[in-house]
Each structure stands twice: as structure tokens, then as C-alpha cells.
Amino acid sequence: MRATLSSWACLSLSLLTCSWLCVTTENQCKIRNQVADCSHLKLKQIPSDLPINITALDISHNQLNKLPPENFTKYSQLTYLNAGSNTLSKLHPELCQILPLLKVLKLQHNQLYELTDNVFSSCSSLMELNLGYNIIKIKNNPFKNLKNLSILDLSHNRLLSTKLGSQTQLESLRELVLSENRITELKREELDFLSNTSLTRLDLSSNPLNKFHTGCLRAIGNLYGLVLNNMKLSENDTEKLCLELSGTRIQNLSLSQVQLSCIYKSTFQGLQTTNLTSLNLSKNYLLTIENESFAGLSNLENLNLEDNKIYNLTSHSLYGLSSVKYLNLRRSHVRKIDDFAFRWLSHLEELLLDGNSFQEITPNMFTGLDNLKYLSLCNWTNGLQIITNKTFSSLANSTLQFLNVTKSRITKIESGAFSWLGHLRILDLGLNEINQVLTGHEFKGLQNIEVIYLSYNKQLTLTSKSFAFVPSLRKLMLRKVACSSLDISPSPFHPLQNLTILDISNNNLANLKDDLFDGLHRLEILDLQHNNLARLWKHANPGSPVLFLKDLLNLHVLNLKSNGFDEIPVQVFKGLFQLRILDLGLNNLNLLPASLFDDQKSLNSLILQKNLITSIEEKVFGIVFKNLKELEMDSNPFDCTCESISWFVNWLNVTQTNIPGLDTHYLCNTPSKYHSTLVMHFDISPCKDSAPFKLLYIISTTLIMLLIFIVILIHFEGWRIAFYWTVSVNRVLGFTEIDRQQEEFDYDAYIIHARRDRKWVSKNFIPLEKNDQSQIRFCLEERDFEAGISKFEATINSIKRSRKIIFVVTEHLLKDPWCKKFKVYHAVQQAIEQSRDSIILIFLHDIPDYKLNHALCLRRGMFKSRCILDWPAQKERVNAFHQQLKMALKSSSKIH
Ligand SMILES: *[C@@H]1O[C@H](CO)[C@@H](O)[C@H](O)[C@H]1NC(C)=O
Ligand SMILES: *[C@@H]1O[C@H](CO)[C@@H](O)[C@H](O)[C@H]1NC(C)=O
Ligand SMILES: *[C@@H]1O[C@H](CO)[C@@H](O)[C@H](O)[C@H]1NC(C)=O
Ligand SMILES: *[C@@H]1O[C@H](CO)[C@@H](O)[C@H](O)[C@H]1NC(C)=O
Ligand SMILES: *[C@@H]1O[C@H](CO)[C@@H](O)[C@H](O)[C@H]1NC(C)=O
Ligand SMILES: *[C@@H]1O[C@H](CO)[C@@H](O)[C@H](O)[C@H]1NC(C)=O
Ligand SMILES: *[C@@H]1O[C@H](CO)[C@@H](O)[C@H](O)[C@H]1NC(C)=O
Ligand SMILES: *[C@@H]1O[C@H](CO)[C@@H](O)[C@H](O)[C@H]1NC(C)=O
Ligand SMILES: *[C@@H]1O[C@H](CO)[C@@H](O)[C@H](O)[C@H]1NC(C)=O
Predict the structure, then answer these.
(1) How remote is the CA of residue 275 from the centroid of ligand 4, in Å?
(2) How far is ligand 7, taken at its centre, from the CA of residue 389, in Å?
(3) What's the total number of domains in the chain?
């Protein structure tokens, strides 16, 4: 049970820590592709549970004090065993018998002190043996059976001599490292055990070596490389050493840091009979190089003179170095280089002169360097000041491709300064003090130039022609050159149709035209960070926002960090479909317009850190977040409310995007309840059901709509509402009509008409009374009013005694003050009090509704259609009208 549990624990641990290929044992060794890494595990025992087919085992940095052969029997396939950095003091000769395939054995940093003759007797397949950093003293022949050994490291031991055996052996050895021992002399008989060996490298560095006995190095079968760094060699020792090397196959000789202060003609004489190709003389106190000291080193290809004190390089110092391809004179305190000093080096391809302090470049300084490809003249402590059209004239015959003159206090480049360098591809003028208007002629003649670095100079003023002579340019760096305005037409970049990288960052740039980058269809990287472009994208910018990115169809990387942007026009990134990296960090952005990033579907990396962003909404980021691999949006004042970040938190839960600092630098700012809590800890469960909010939204919208409806209704139909309202109120308050019977009324209708219509009324209504069997009785003012009572009273009484009220609507009626003010009012009042639909309108004239309303406060719409009658124009319709009138008079007056 416990075993199962622990293996389960192991399995899960291994799943956590390793990829699928690797398995972890109980000892936590990492096993991958038959390689077991058991280092740094404080092991005291050889792990016994590793797969038996492992071929490499690293048990270094543990606490093993022996390597018992029987504990390796399982691992007989091992070809590599690293037991370094343990506390081994003894080796068992049987180890190699158990591990017959072993090729590499590393035992460095142990406490081995004695190697018996048979200790490696079975290790004939061994190719590499590292015994460095032990306390070994060699007696007899411990290595004599290592017939295939190629590399033997015995550095940092207690060897007193080079003698590793008394008989010829180690035929296959290529590298022998004996550095950091106590070897004082090289004797022939102490190296002749290597008489059948071809060494490519013998390292004797850091030994107190001061005596080279005659024939010592010739005792070695072949010696191709000798390293003697970091010791003290006098001039005489060096000379003797070189004599000992004469006639050998030596190719590489390193004498770095050997305190060699002078080189004489005789110093390297011994090397003249060799094929030496590489000589390292760096870090010496080399002061004097006697003329023609290197003569005879005609095979030398690499000469390193870095970090010396060679003050004067005369015209013959380098005489004879006709094969040198690489010359390093960095920081060699060279003050003066005579004219034609390099003329001997006709094969030189790379010349490094950084960190020196010449007075000037003389007209023939580089003459003869016809094969020079790479020239580095950086960190010129005296200062190059002005580059004239003469400065590089001595390179006219070269095919220089790379020129680096950074940090050389250049203040001005004159017209035609590089006209000699037609092959130049890369020109680095950065970190100088150039202060000038670039007219374009500075770069005349650079017809193959691809890269120009001008970054970090004092002040460069660009003009439309600045780059007119270098249309082949691919990369242009103008960072921090105090070029604060690019308000130039036509744009200085227009000739650069091949440009792929442009850096104009850190310029405090505030002014540019929207066509600045037009035509740069190959531009892939644009650096505009640390400028002052905020105004250009403001809504309020005169002449609308400046959309200067619009033509950069192939842009991959855009850096707009730290520009003070607080507004972004929605169309600013439109068309930038290729954009992979967009940096908008360190600005003042708060609200980003919806669909701002809609064309950035393939963006990999979006940086918006240190802005004022409060909310992360789907309508802005939904599309751009889809393929994002990295997002940096930390240090914004996030508003931890459902509306602002719930979509973001949801996205965090499912995304694979790398978001550095998510668990430290994405903090809520508002509301105060969540201040300084982590955004990723924001609980979105209450947001998931947004129904309450939706409901609230719906209710409030409905209410507002309703209110608007009511207002409109009241405005246009208010009268009708008021009318029905009053009617209803009357009914409720008890003015209810007792639907009086026909008999209760004295008249069928009271007729209201204008005085001027009297004749028409008499003519048309009185005959109706007579003709009709139904006995209709109208109340006519003139005829039926009781005598003796006032006209007011009479009118009121008559209206009360009539079942219906007929209005004879004419233009006259509308103007008749008596009718308007009194009769109509009472008629309507009556109708209201009795809750009766008792009014009939007869229109003699065509009166529009608004006039009717205006004059009498009545509208057609107040009445049932059958109660509105129009006096027919044609005579033959009068009968029909009478019929309609009768129907209206007979209709019930109840309001339903
Ligand atoms: C070697 O194996 C034996 C028995 O398996 C064990 O007791 C011993 O501790 C092991 N020694 C080392 C150094 O692993
Ligand atoms: C090595 O052995 C392990 C089991 O111990 C086995 O899973 C693996 O396939 C073997 N590898 C090879 C290359 O034989
Ligand atoms: C070097 O050798 C010359 C003669 O060969 C001798 O005069 C000189 O003293 C020697 N210098 C040193 C430092 O041993
Ligand atoms: C130097 O090289 C040449 C040609 O490769 C060869 O003939 C000559 O033997 C070499 N000299 C020495 C000392 O190795
Ligand atoms: C270098 O040459 C100048 C004269 O050109 C001379 O004054 C000076 O002593 C020389 N320095 C060395 C170290 O040879
Ligand atoms: C520049 O040169 C000076 C003096 O030669 C040296 O001390 C300094 O380290 C150099 N700086 C660089 C960056 O190479
Ligand atoms: C170099 O510039 C000078 C003026 O400064 C001019 O007279 C001369 O012709 C120019 N030389 C070349 C080769 O352009
Ligand atoms: C360039 O080569 C030509 C012809 O070989 C020669 O006349 C001229 O002096 C050389 N110029 C330089 C600066 O090396
Ligand atoms: C020019 O040299 C400087 C300093 O040595 C180095 O930093 C820079 O990268 C070099 N320029 C190029 C283009 O390699």
C-alpha cells in the first residue's frame, strides 16, 4: 500500500518536474534518453535502481567516498561517468572491467593522491580522463594502458614535473593539461614518454616554469599547440622557449600574461622554422617591439596584441607579417602609428584598434590594407573629432565592409567622408558627439551600405535629402540624437524603400507629418518609444489626429512606449495585419476605443503596462487576445467590478498566454473594498448571473420609454385624457346619471348656433319637427326660451331639459363670443356632469380640428363618429343627412 502510494507520489512529482520523456527514481535522479543525472543530491551511495540500459551517469557533487565496482555491475552500458566533486580518495582497478565501454571518466575535484600502476589497466577504451583538482603525484606508469586516451587533464594537482611515465605511452593523446601544478623546468627526459604522441595542445599555464632544457619540446612526437599563459617569462626565457620550438610542428602559441615587456628581433627567431599560425601575446607589459621582430613569421595568421603598452607602432614594427588575417591591438596604448605601418599586412581582413589614443588618422595610416573587411576604431580616447574627406582615403583600395567608430568623440562628418568606402555594408557612428545638419552628402558614395548606426549623438537635424544617397539602407538607427521635429516634406525616409528597421526613439519627437513613413512597405521594426507624440493622436489636435502609421503594411514590431498618449484614434492600427509585437507601455491610456485592435489578430505580444487602464473589456480586447502569447498589462489601476474586469478574469482562467507578474503586479485599485488585492483573485461568481443587472436595466429603460410615451401622449391627446378623466371622476364622485328616460327631457336636442346662422337653423330644423312621425322636438333659443328669466338661466335650463346638444359648427360659431364662452362651456359641463355622450356636431363649413379646438376647446376625436355630421354640399344628399341626424338623436348617450 505504502509502496503504491509513494510511487504515485513519485509519479505525480515527476509529472510536475519533468517533461514526458523523463522518469524520476526514488533518488530523484533525472533520466532522459539513457542519461541519468544524479548530481547535487547529497548521495552517499551509488543509486541502485536506475534503468540498466543507461549509457551516461552523472553522480558529481555528492558525498561519495568510493566507487565500488560491484555497485556498477548493473550499468555495464555506461560510456560516460562523471564522479567529480565528491570525496573519492581511492580508485578500484576493477571499475573499468565492470564498465568496458567507458569512454569518458571525470574525477575532478576529489581527493585522489596516489595512482597505482594498474589503476587504469583495464580502461583501454577510455578517451577522456579528467583528474584535475586532486592532490595527485605521479610515480611509475599509471596511464600506460590508456591506448585510446585523447584528453588527459591533470590540472591543479601536485605534479613537480611533466613526467607521467617512464616509457613511451599515450599514443592517442591530443590534449594534455598540466596547468596549475608545481612544474619548474621542462626536461627532455620528462617529456619523452610522449615521443609517439601528436599533441594539438599542451597546456602548462600557471606553473612556476623558468627553465627550458635543450630538446625538451622536441621530445614530443609532434607538438601543434602550446599554452603558457599566466606565468613569468623573461625575454631570455621566451627566446629560449622559441628556440626549443624551432623545427617543431607548432601552430598555436599562447604567451598571454607572461610579463613580456620587450620583443627583440631575436625573440621569435626560433619560430622562423615553424609553421606558426596563431600567436597570442595579450595582457603583457609589452612596451617595445623592435623593428622587424616578427620577420620570419610568414605563416602567422592571427596575432593578438590586446592589452599591452605598445606606444609607438613604427613603419617596420609589423614587418614580415604577410599572412596575418586578424590583428588585435585593442587597448594597447598605441599613441602613434607611423604612415605605412600596416603596409606589410596585405592579407589583413580584420583590424581591431579599439581603446587606443592616436592623435589622428594620418593620410597613409591604412595604406596597403587592400584586403581589409572589418575595421573597429571604437573608444578612441583622444577623439577623432572631424571626419573629413581625407580621413579614410588610405582605405581607398580596400574592400572594407564593416566600420565601427563608436565612442570616438566625432563631432562632425564632412561631405564625402566615406566616399572611399564603396563596399561598406555596416557603418557604426553611434555614441559620438556629432552635431550637424545631415544634408545627405555625408553618406555619398556608400552605394552598398545596409546599416547605419547614428544613435546617441549630440544633435542631428534631418532634411528631406539626408538619406538621398543611400537608398540601399535596410537598418537606420537614430536613437537619442535630439532630432525633435520631423515636420519635413518630403519625408527624409522617402528614399529608403528597402528599410526594414528604423529606430527614432528617445528624441522627444513632438512633430511629424502623417506621410513620414509613406512608402516604407518593407519596414518591419519601428521604434518610437520615449518621444512626445501624445498631441498627434488627440481628438482636439488641429486638423484631426495624425495617422502616421497608415502605410506600414509589413510592420512586425512597433514600440510606442512612453509617449504620453492619453488618447488613441480608433483607426490608428487599421491595416497593420502583420503586427506581432506592440508596446504601448508607460503611457496615460485609460479608455481604449472598441475594435481598436481588430486588425491585430496575429499579435503575439501586447504591452500596456503602467498606463491608467481601469477596465479590460471584450469589445476592445476580445480579438487581439485570441492569439496572444505574451501580455504585459501590469501596474494599471484596475477597477475590480463585474463590468470592468469580469470578462478579463474569465479569460485568465482559460488562456495559455504568458502573463508575467500576474500574481504580483495586477492589483485592483477600485473599489476601495478590493484596493491592493490581486485581480486574479477577483470573484466573478456574482457576475456570472448578470440577470439582476439586466432586469434592472430593462425596468429602468421601460420606465423611461413609458414616461416618454406619456409625455407625447399628453402633448397630443391630453384633451381626450382630460375629458375621459373628468367624466370618470364625476361618475365615481356620484354625479352619475340616472339614465333618465326619454320622458324626463322636454326636448330631444338643444341647438347651439351662432346668431348669424339663425336663419339656416330655422329653415332646416323646424321642418324636421313637423315632418317626422317620431316627433322630434328641438329647443330653439328664439322660440322656446321662457320669458322673464335671464338668458343665462334660460340657456342652462334648456340644456338641462334637452337630451342632446347640437352644435351647428360654422365659421360664425367659432367667432360668436356668447356661444364660445358660455354655451359651449355649459354644454360640455352638462355632458361631463351627466356622463353623457350627448353632443352632436353638425359642420356646415369645413373647419379644421385645430381651429375647433382653439375656439371651442372641442375636437372631433372627443365624439363618436355618428355624432359628427357634415352638411352635404349636394341637395340630393340632404335626406340622407336627416336620417343620420335622427340616428344620432336616438342613440344612447351613455358612455361605455
Ligand atoms: C554498494 O552496494 C552495497 C550493497 O548493495 C551497499 O551496501 C553499499 O552501500 C553500496 N556502496 C555504495 C558506495 O553505493
Ligand atoms: C531502457 O530501459 C527502459 C526500462 O528500464 C525502457 O523503458 C527503455 O525503452 C529502454 N531504452 C532503450 C533504448 O532500450
Ligand atoms: C639575457 O641573455 C643575455 C645574453 O644572452 C644576457 O646578457 C642578459 O643578462 C640576460 N638577461 C636576463 C634577464 O637574464
Ligand atoms: C610547414 O608547412 C609546409 C607546407 O604545408 C610543410 O611543407 C613544412 O614541412 C611545414 N614545416 C614544418 C616545420 O612543419
Ligand atoms: C614613441 O615615439 C616618440 C617620437 O615619435 C618618442 O618620443 C617616444 O619616446 C617613443 N616612445 C616609445 C615608448 O618608444
Ligand atoms: C575605453 O578605453 C579606455 C582606455 O583605453 C579603457 O580603460 C576602457 O575600458 C575602454 N572602454 C571600453 C568600453 O572599451
Ligand atoms: C575634399 O573637400 C575639399 C573641401 O573641403 C574639396 O576641395 C576637395 O575636392 C574634396 N576632395 C574630394 C576627394 O572630394
Ligand atoms: C590604390 O591602388 C592603386 C593602384 O594599385 C595605387 O596607385 C594607389 O596608390 C593605391 N591607393 C592607396 C590609397 O592605397
Ligand atoms: C561597435 O563597437 C561597439 C563597442 O565596441 C559595440 O558595442 C557595437 O556593437 C559595435 N557595433 C556593431 C555594429 O557591431
Answers:
(1) 6
(2) 6
(3) 2
pTM across the whole model: 0.73
Q: Are the C-beta atoms of residues 609 and 635 closer than 8 Å to each other? A: yes
Does the structure show a pLDDT above 80 at 819?
Answer: no
Q: What pLDDT, on the 0 to 100 scale, is given for residue 24?
A: 46
* Å from CA of 277 to ligand 3 middle: 28
Residues 667 and 763 in one domain: no
Residue nearest to ligand 1 atom 9, measured at CA: 45
d(CA 359, CA 157) in angstroms, rounded, equals 49
Closest ligand 9 atom number to CA of residue 402: 13
In angstroms, the Cα distances linking 456 to 404, 453, 510 are: 14, 9, 18
Probe target for ligand 1 pocket from 27, 50, 63, 71, with the most ligand atoms within 8 Å of CB: 71
Residue 737: what pLDDT? 45
Q: Is 698 exposed, middle or buried (0-12, 13-18, 19+ CB in 10 A)?
A: exposed
- Is residue 367 lining ligand 8, measured as CB closer than 6 Å? yes
Nearest bound ligand to CA 450?
9
Q: From the CB of 312, is ligand 5 less than 6 Å away?
A: yes
Does any ligand 7 atom lie closer than 6 A to the CB of residue 511?
no
- With respect to residue 31, please indicate whether it lies within any of the assigned structural domains: no
- Rg value, the chain, Cα: 53
The rounded Å distance from CA 241 to ligand 3 centre is 14
Q: Rounded distance, CA 605 to CA 20, Å? A: 28
**Neighbouring residues of 236: CB distance < 8 A, sequence distance ≥ 6:** none
Same domain assignment for residues 793 and 691 = no
CA of 405 to the centre of ligand 7 (A): 22
d(CA 185, CA 240): 12
* Rounded distance between C-alpha atoms, residue 132 and residue 141, angstroms: 18
Least confident stretch, 50-64, 495-509, 745-759: 745-759
Residue nearest atom 1 of ligand 9, based on CA coordinates: 404
Residue 224: closest CA among 174, 291, 259, 164: 174
Question: What element of type H or E holds 177?
Answer: strand 175-177
Question: Distance, CA 479 to ligand 9 centroid (Å)?
Answer: 15
Asked whether residue 648 falls in the same domain as residue 514, the answer is: yes
Phi/psi of residue 130, nearest 5 degrees:
-115, 115
236 Cβ closer than 6 Å to some ligand 3 atom: yes
Q: Is the pLDDT score of 551 beyond 90?
A: yes
Whose Cα sits closest to atom 7 in ligand 9?
Answer: 406
62 part of a folded domain: no
Share of the chain above pLDDT 70, in %: 91
Q: Which domain holds residue 754?
A: 749-890
* Separation CA 372–CA 370 (nearest Å): 6
Same domain, 520 and 667: yes
556 belongs to a structural domain: yes
Is 693 a residue whose pLDDT tops 90? no
Say yes or no: CB of residue 6 within 6 Å of ligand 3: no
pLDDT tens for residues 622-660?
999 999 999 999 999 999 999 899 999 999 999 999 999
Q: Is residue 336 in contact with ligand 5, taking CB distance under 6 Å?
A: yes
Q: How far is the CA of 51 from the centre of ligand 2 (A)?
A: 7
Tell me the C-alpha distance between 652 and 638, whole Å.
15
Half-sphere exposure at residue 262, Cβ-oriented, CA atoms within 13 angstroms: 8
Is residue 39 assigned to a domain?
A: no
Identify whether residues 685 and 758 lie together within a single domain.
Answer: no
Contact 24, 30 (CB under 8 A): yes
Residues 6+ apart with CB under 8 A from 662: 634, 652, 679, 680
pLDDT (0 to 100) of residue 150:
97
Domain's final residue, options 695, 711, 740: 695
- Atom index in ligand 8 nearest the CA of residue 393 equals 13
Q: From atom 3 of ligand 5, which residue's Cα is the shortest distance away?
A: 312
Question: Of 652, 677, 695, which residue is a domain's last?
Answer: 695
